Task: structure prediction
Amino acid sequence: MEGAGAVPPTEQSRQYRELARQLRAVGVVNRELARRLPADCPPASAGLLTLLRRHGAMRMSQLTELLAIDLSVTSRHVAHAVERGWIERLPDPHDGRSRLLRLTGSGERLLDELSELATESLAEHLSGWTADDVATLNRLLERLIADFGECRPRPVAVTPSSHPADSSK
Result:
């Protein structure tokens, strides 16, 4: 029950609340697609291979930023993919101390296979949808993603006045 003085939600806020609920539920779709992955290719590996295909060769630090995870976690995922021959480490031509990560032919073939598995799974589950339904969903999801951009966590700067230890002085 809403408290006294509370503003009733507008139709638009109700729609956004429902959209948030629906987007959380999309996790079911992602989990089903992940179940179709080969045993030696966890979703995290598929994700980093996809980023390397989309953005090209890059340093570990760039990949870590795109994945928005800790460097040590990225390093484990990269080691897994290197062991399987899906990516390779190359000298960075601009900095001899650094290495670039690049998708290999084997990694490209794996991504093609994963794409086919996802396509088959979606075709099975959406067999009752029209081509127009699928096209509309694709168009709206592309728009949603474009409006959010590449949302990655940004580091929060701690200023002396906002640091908890400073407030006790």
Notes: The helical segments are 11-25, 27-35, 43-55, 60-67, 71-83, 105-125, 131-148. The first strand starts at residue 58 and ends at 59. The CA atoms of residues 92 and 98 lie 5 Å apart. The radius of gyration is 22 Å.
